[in-house]
Amino acid sequence: MSSPFTLGLFYTVIRPEEKWILAAAEARGIPVERLADDQVTFPLVRNGFKSDLVLNRSVSHTRSLYALRFFEHYGVPTVNRFDVVSLCGDKVLTSLRLQEAGVPTPKTVVALTPEAALKALDEVGYPAVLKPPIGSWGRLMAKVDDREEAEQIIEHKSALGSPMHSVFYVQEYVEKPDRDLRVFVVGDAIVAAMYRRSSDWRTNAHLGGTAEALSPDAELTELALRAAEAVGGGVLAVDLMEAPEGLVVHEVNHTPEFKALTGATGIDVAAKIVDYVAEVATR
Amino acid sequence: MTQCPQCDAVLQKNEMIEGEIFSCPECGTELEVATAEPFSVALAPHEEEDWGE
Q1: pLDDT, tens only, A190-223
Q2: Cβ B32 vs Cβ B43: under 8 Å
Q3: B2, B8, B32, B30: which is closest to A11 by C-alpha?
């Protein structure tokens, strides 16, 4: 079988997800150009680069952003698009977009200095969650129970020095069951969904959360698709929580992992991604 | 066949491909396949601040 296009895989490391993507491409006769994010160079003018479409699987937000902007500049479509990644990679921008699109999301206040962060926490009320605007896997997130704790955490964050630690994303602590929901959207369809359970308040699989398959009902389907569309669409994982007043979307992940999801649901998510990428490439 | 750079354990390539990450079965260190042919490994890259999904 001959393929009408060459798929560029932009990646940091080959995890099971990337291995499955490579296997799905091979099974469909799609040639793959491997683009390791620590090796590729980007001249201003396209040069010696075969891919007709690039699938971004880099785990680095910064590398993803610049690379996707270059691919776009070279006239190469990407999954996801630069504007989607730049939006989803920043919790502040994501919250703004979700709010603009009328997607329910937890109460959030942003502050730009340590002094204002204390005010933001007062506005949100304790307990609250303090998150870095960029980064994930639950790192450097803090549940703040009272003002004394807030002062200590803010002092520590300020001492980290990076400008991003001087932006304070303060979110209400949602009283939810010991689980959250992850809905994997590819294009305009949900391909799989799961509950993530944890005794920790963060349910990231990286932190030992466990996965359980979930069949999305009409409300969840509608909300997840609306959230994905709001940020620009593509291959996205929409994370939701069951708040007392109903479902809220707290994150949309632009380069989602899906090992746990594949294990929990038995669905070949990698194949769905490759089929979608082939569809985008031949549009 | 190659050796773990951390503990010198003997490692087999099996079905692994270039760039793949895996844990050394002896010491648990996270490793990356540097080259598939010939098989060589290196310590896996350290997680950076902006890494995530």
Answers
A1: 999 999 997 777 666 666 678 999 999 999 999 9
A2: yes
A3: B32
Cα–Cα distance list, A197 to A190, A194, A259, A262 (Å): 20, 10, 15, 16
Composition of chain A by helix, strand, coil, percent to 5 = 35, 25, 35
Q: Residue A196: in which H helix or E strand, if any?
A: strand A189-197
> Kind and range of the H or E element at A142?
strand A142-144
> Whole-number mean pLDDT of chain A?
93
Structure tokens at A181: 């929901």
Could you write out the DSSP letters of every residue in A80-130?
S-HHHHHHHT-HHHHHHHHHHTT-----EEEESSHHHHHHHHHHH-SSEEE
- A57: distance to nearest CA of chain B, Å? 9
Q: Distance (Å) from the C-alpha of residue A281 to the closest C-alpha of chain B?
A: 23
Residue B49 token pair: 């601040």
A23 to chain B: closest CA residue? B17
pTM of structure: 0.92
Residue A244: how many other CB atoms lie within 10 Å: 7
CB contact under 8 A, A22 and B17: yes
Locus of tokens 């730009």:
A112
What's the rounded Cα separation, in Å, for the pair B42 and B35?
9
- A179-186 and A235-243: which strand pairing? antiparallel
DSSP character string of A213-225: E----HHHHHHHH
Pairing type for strands A53-57 and A7-11 reads: parallel
Task: Go through chain B and tell me how many residues it has.
Answer: 53
